[in-house]
Amino acid sequence: MSPLQFTQIQRRIAELDRIPTVPALLMPLLKFLGQPAEDVDVNRMVGLIAHDKSLSAQCLQMANSPLFGMRQRVDSVRGAVIAVGIRRVREMATTCCLVRALPRPGGGIRPDSLWRHSLGCALASRHLATKIGFKDPEQAYLGGLLHDVGLIVELTLFPKEFDAAFRMAAEQGRILTEAEREILGTDHSVIGSVLADKWSLPPEMKEVIRFHHDLENSCKNRTLVSIVHLSDLLCRFRGLGYGYAEFRQLDLTDEPSWQYIAEDLPQVRNFDLARFTLEMDDCLEEIEQLVTSLFNIQ
Amino acid sequence: MSSIGTTTPNQPLPRPDAALNSPPSQQLLDIRDLIYQVAGILQPDHRIRFLEERCQKRMKVLGFTRLGEYYDHLTKGASRTAEMTELLNEITIGETCFFRNLPQIEALKKVVLPAIVENKKRLPFSKVRIWSAGCSTGEEAYTLAILLLEEKAGLLKNLNFEILATDLNERSLEKARAAVYGDYAIRNLTPYFRQKYFNPSGNSLAVKDEVKSVIQFSRLNLRDDARMTFMKSMDIIFCCNVMIYFDAAVRTKVVQHYYNNLLPGSYLFLGHSESLYGINQAFRLVHFPGATAYFKPAPVVGGVK
Fold it and tell me: What is the pLDDT of residue B1?
C-alpha cells in the first residue's frame, strides 16, 4: 500500500464532520475543561451530565471504581462532586464522553485496548505529575486521556490504511507511529491535532496531542507533554499498550522527555522509577474492569 | 500514597468478605515501607493482603495479637534483624519453578540474548556466560539452560555458552545437582519441553544430561569479597529474591561486585518486586514488555555523548 498523498489527507480531514459519534455533550464539557475549577458552574455541569442517563451511569461506575476511590459509595453525580470534587468529576465525564467517540468496529486495534491504554496513560500521567511536583495533575490526567485521539480519526477516515499500519506494527513488534508514517505518510499526532482544533480543545491539550511523539518541537508546555510521553511509554511496556508487545529495550531516563522534565523539575532525578512501575501494575485489573463496564453501559 | 489514582480502597457493595477488603491498616503500610527500605522489596497494593497474612503467621509464632506490637518488634525488638529475615522468608517462600517469569524469558530471548550475541561478534572470546546467583534448588538455572539449548542452532550458532549457578546452602545445591523435580516445580513446563529435556522418574521428572552439562553448580557466599572478585566476564546475572537476606550495606557491596563481574553491555535481573533504588546508581533500570532489568552500559565510543 503506498503512502497517502498529502492532498488525500487534507481532503479526508476536511470531511471530519463524518466522525460519527462526537457526543453532543463533549463540546460543552470541554468548555468546562478550559475554565479554572473554581469558575465552573457546578449546577450546570451536574445538570448536563445527569440529563444523559447512560453518561451519568458511566460516571458513577467510574466514581465507584477504586481507581478514583472514594470512601463511600456514591449514587448521584452531585454526590460524586461532593465526595471527590469538581475536578475529578470533570475528568470522569470527559473520559466517559470520549469512550463513546470511538467507532465500534476498529481497524486492527481493539477499541477496549485503545481505551485501556488511554485510561492507563491518564492515571499514570496524573500519578507521575503528583509524585514529581508538577503543578497541575488534572491537566496531566486529561493529557494522558486525550493524547491518542488521532487514532480515532484514523480509524474513522482511513480504516484500510490504518489497519495495514497497525498489523505491520503488531506483527513486527514495532512502534506504531513508525508504521503509520510508513503507510499513511503521517501519524496520529498530526492527524489528532486537526481534530483538536476542530474540537477547540484547550491549548495545552492541543500541544500534548500534536507533540507527544515530537517533543523537541513542543514549546509552551513541554513538561506536560513529556509527562504524558513517559506515561505513554510505560503503559506500552506494562500491559497497557495497543494490544501487542514492542520487543526492545527501553531506558526511560535516556528519553528526551525525561531530560525535559529534569530541566523543569530537577527532583525527578531522585524519582524511584522501579517502584512507580510496580505501582502501575496495581491498576491493571481495575482498569480492565472499568473499561469493560464502561463499554457495557453504552 | 502508593497506587496510581487514589489508594483508598473502596467497596461499593457490602460483601461477605468485607472485613478482608477494609482499607489496610497504617501499621501494615508501615511494615510494607519498612520491608522496602530494608530489603528493597515492594509489596504492591494487590499483594497487601498476602503481606498481612504472612505477618499474622509470624505474630502467631511470637504470640502477638496486634499488628502494632509486631511492628514494634520488627523495628525496636532485640532480635529485629532475625525477625525481618523470618518475615522475608515467609514472603518469598515457594516461588521457584521452571519458567516462572514468562515476560522475563521472552525479553531474554527476543532482546537481551540478541544484543549480547551482537556484542560477542566484535570480540575474540565468544562465550556467553550467565550466572544464577543464589540458585537455590536449580529451577532457574535449568530454565536458562533450556533457553540456551533452544537457541543452539540459531542465535547461538558458533558460540559457546555456560551457566554458573551458585548458592550458599549445600542442601539446596545437592537437590539442584540431583535435578529431579516434582509437580510444583514443573507446573509451567509445556509438553514440548517436558519431552525434549526431561526423563520420567517415578512421579517426577529428571533433567536430561544434555541440560545438566551446560551448568556448573558451586557453593558461594555472596559476602565473600575475595571469591566474588573472581566471578569475571559475566553477560547476564540472575539474582532473584536473594538480596533480601542482606542489609543495605551488604547489598550495596554485592551489587557493586555484580557491576564489576559484568561485561559492558550486560544485564542484571532481580526478582519481580525487587529494586536497586538507593543501592546503586551505575546500573540503569531498563524496561522490556512486562519485565525490567538493570543494564550496565557499554562505554560510549568516540568520546562525549
Answer: 34
Domains of chain A: 106-284 (1.10.3210.10)
Find residue B133's DSSP bridge partners. B166
H-helix or E-strand spanning residue A248: none
Tell me the backbone φ, ψ of residue A226, rounded to 5 degrees. Answer: -70, -40
The answer to whether the CB atoms of B292 and A274 lie below 8 A apart is yes
Domain ranges of chain B: 18-91, 102-296
What confidence tens digit (pLDDT) does each residue in A180-209 have? Answer: 999 988 999 998 988 888 777 889 999 999
Question: Hey, is the C-beta of A124 within 8 angstroms of any chain B C-beta?
Answer: yes
Question: Do A69 and B7 make contact, defined as CB atoms within 8 angstroms?
Answer: yes
**Which chain A residue lies closest to B40 (C-alpha atoms)?**
A275
Identify which of A173, A250, A283 has the shortest CB distance to residue B287: A250
pLDDT tens per residue across span A250-294: 999 999 999 999 999 999 999 999 999 988 888 888 888 888 888
Is pLDDT above 70 for B20?
no
**Interchain contact, B8 vs A251, CB within 8 Å:** no
Neighbours of A248 (CB within 10 A): 17
Segment of A82-86, A160-164, B129-133 carrying the highest mean pLDDT: B129-133
Contact A147, A257 (CB under 8 A): no
Confidence (pTM): 0.84
B18-91 CATH: 1.10.155.10
Q: What is the CATH number that goes with domain B102-296?
A: 3.40.50.150
Angle, helices A42-51 vs A53-63, to 10°: value is 110
**Backbone dihedral angles phi then psi of residue B174, each to the nearest 5 degrees:** -60, -45
Question: Can you list the positions of beta strands (E) in B193-273?
Answer: 198-201, 204-207, 215-219, 234-239, 262-270
Which chain A positions have a beta carbon within 8 Å of B284's beta carbon? 251, 253-254
Which three-class secondary structure state does DSSP give residue B157? Answer: coil
- How many other CB atoms are there within 10 angstroms of residue A95's CB atom? 23
Residue in B124, B113, B104 with CA at minimum distance from that of residue B156: B113
Average pLDDT value for residue range B154-163: 93
Strands B284-288 and B291-296: antiparallel
ipTM: 0.87
Helix or strand holding residue B296 (H, E): strand B291-296
Mean pLDDT of chain A: 86
CA dihedral B240, B246, B251, B257 (to 10 degrees): -70
The stretch A207-234 carries a mean pLDDT of 95
